[in-house]
Design goal:
Blueprint: H1 4-11, H2 15-23, H3 30-43, H4 49-54, E1 61-65, H5 74-89, E2 94-98, H6 103-113, E3 118-121, H7 130-136, E4 141-144, E5 154-158, H8 160-173, E6 178-182, H9 188-191, H10 194-208, E7 212-216, H11 225-237, E8 242-245, H12 249-261, E9 271-277, E10 289-292, H13 295-308, E11 319-322
Parallel strand pairs: 1-2, 1-3, 3-4, 4-5, 5-11, 6-7, 6-8, 8-9, 9-10
């Protein structure tokens, strides 16, 4: 089957012009469109999706770019993939999942082919390689996450700063004067945007409230039970009486186990709150208060914005933040005096 490069060569135009003509996202001169249509018919380019797009209709497909790497936390990532798929199906859309570790490669292919109506971007990094590509293609793109440079982009995310402040306030309002944050592995603070945002906001809120905050990570390249236990021990020795945990469920289990091994009860001796958890903290050995990261909230909004981008009134290129909520399970109490 012919590819878009061959269509562009046959029509004597650029690849981007072919993409614009097929997607209808930007105007193309009538004679140029006729040459492209003739090349598509002659070469048999994408006979199904191409024919629909030339007729001016949609493909009913969204691409979802989610690079799967060795350090990916699969349960969390798959929760977002599932939530996006369900949200899309409610609008009669299918999802084309792109898992290339070199994320821009797959995204570039589908944008050039005109096979999808919009692209949804997951696992967004601070200096994400898909950012400049999103700005250069005609296909509407929505980021579920926030890169450092978001100018001109439509982004959706939990308000991690407010979530961190809410967690700190929950512990401080209970009377704790030294609070701790057990975070994600070191690599998450290099490859993801939200862990450092949350950590900075937690520390800043404590400072605003006149309380000391201590933070530790839960591993290096992945979560480590030994390093997590050591972090809990060091923080307890440093006077921490309440913990916020921003990490996967296995880290929560290790924290609870270390506290139990030391004969400390929750919340009698130590208070505990989970921040931005995408799993059910009520299912832990001791149910833990949580400010949840709900995949459905982010993904539903992202799909709605993608659909709006196909209308005559596309969404503004801005950051759409989802306000945090607190679910209380009884794991926070005043410190023991």
């Amino acid at each position: 089957m012919a590819n878009i490069t061959e269509v562009a060569e046959a029509a004597g135009v650029s690849i981007s012009t072919v993409s614009y003509a097929l997607s209808g996202k930007r105007p193309v001169a009538a004679d140029t469109r006729r040459r492209i249509e003739a090349a598509v018919r002659e070469l048999g380019y994408s006979p199904n999706a191409g024919a629909r797009m030339l007729a001016g209709s949609r493909t009913q497909i969204f691409a979802l770019t989610e690079p799967l790497r060795a350090d990916s936390h699969a349960p969390t990532h798959m929760a977002f993939v599932l939530a996006t798929t369900i949200a899309a199906r409610r609008h009669d859309y299918d999802i084309l999942l792109l898992t290339d570790e070199q994320a821009s490669a797959g995204m570039g292919r589908v944008a050039a082919s005109g096979l999808v109506d919009a692209i949804l971007v997951l696992d967004v990094g601070p200096d994400d390689e898909r950012v400049p590509l999103a700005r250069s293609i005609a296909t509407p793109t929505v980021f579920i996450g926030v890169p450092n440079d978001r100018e001109g982009l439509v982004c959706v995310d939990l308000d991690f700063e407010s979530a961190a402040a809410l967690a700190a306030d929950r512990l401080i309002d209970a009377g704790h004067e030294v609070i701790g944050l057990i975070g994600q592995p070191d690599v998450a603070y290099e490859k993801s945007n939200f862990p450092p945002r949350l950590r900075r906001a937690f520390t800043a809120r404590a400072a605003e409230r006149g309380v000391r905050a201590v933070s530790r990570t839960s591993g290096v390249n992945s979560t480590s039970a030994d390093l997590t236990r050591r972090a809990v021990a060091e923080m307890l020795d440093d006077g921490v009486t309440a913990f916020a945990v921003h990490a996967a469920d296995d880290v929560h289990l290790v924290v609870l186990a270390e506290l139990a091994d030391r004969g400390l009860s929750v919340p009698g001796d130590v208070s505990l709150i989970s921040v931005a958890a995408s799993f059910d903290t009520a299912a832990l050995p001791f149910p833990v208060d949580v400010i949840p990261l709900i995949p459905e909230a982010s993904c539903d909004l992202a799909v709605e914005l993608a659909l709006q981008s196909l209308s005559d009134e596309p969404p503004e290129a801005t950051l759409h933040l989802i306000p945090p909520t607190l679910i209380v399970h009884g794991s926070v109490a005043p410190p023991r005096r």
